[in-house]
Write the structure tokens for this entry.
Amino acid sequence: MTKPQPRVSVVMPFYNDPYVGEAIESVLAQTYGNLELIVVNDGSTQETERLLPYRQRARILNKTNGGTASALNLGFRSASGEYVAWLSSDDRFETEKIARQVAFMEEKRAWISHTAFRCINERGEYEGDPIRLALPDDYAFYHSFLAGNVINGCTIMMRKSLFDRMGGFNEELLYVHDYDFWVRSVLSGFPIPYLPEPLTAYRRHTAMGTVRHKQEIGEEFRRVTEAYRPRLERLLEAIKPQRSFIRQS
């Protein structure tokens, strides 16, 4: 007998975003069959009419404005899937994204994974080459967390049971809740294997949060990094003899 497809829930936080229709369409166009889309309206005051055509094809949850972490937590906790994925409302999935990443995770028996991605502009046009990690091994990957966040959150897929086990995203963090979750996962013994295929399109535009809140993001990142630094350094010291181990992809 053919093994049934595991159910996947895609959670899309939405706040006043004119690109949301394009993001929703990219989920509905997936080649993967057993799929659930949950759009979390985080107290939007604009662009909500763009959700109306999708009321029969997506679960739309409404909440008061609380930030991305709170929207993700509501969506993931409401999800019925064995796997959960995150798509920002201004980005897009490639049509094979869910199918390719589920197959990868089933093969690796992974709890969480991430992929390469491509950039698009305000008009949705591809720009430049795909963004792929140039990190040779797990030591280099974990070391990168001391300086930045190399994981694009919309490339992530995880088992819902991992989300539950980790207690969700830290809602006190306005900007680096994703980085915080990845580090907590790694430090709890859950590696994050990498699929080097560009399966998400990341939109760059003038209204994006990373542009408008660059200084605040930097300050929050430095504070969170310093809190985790001792534990990350102990992990690096523990795996240093294994630097010849190449990251599986």
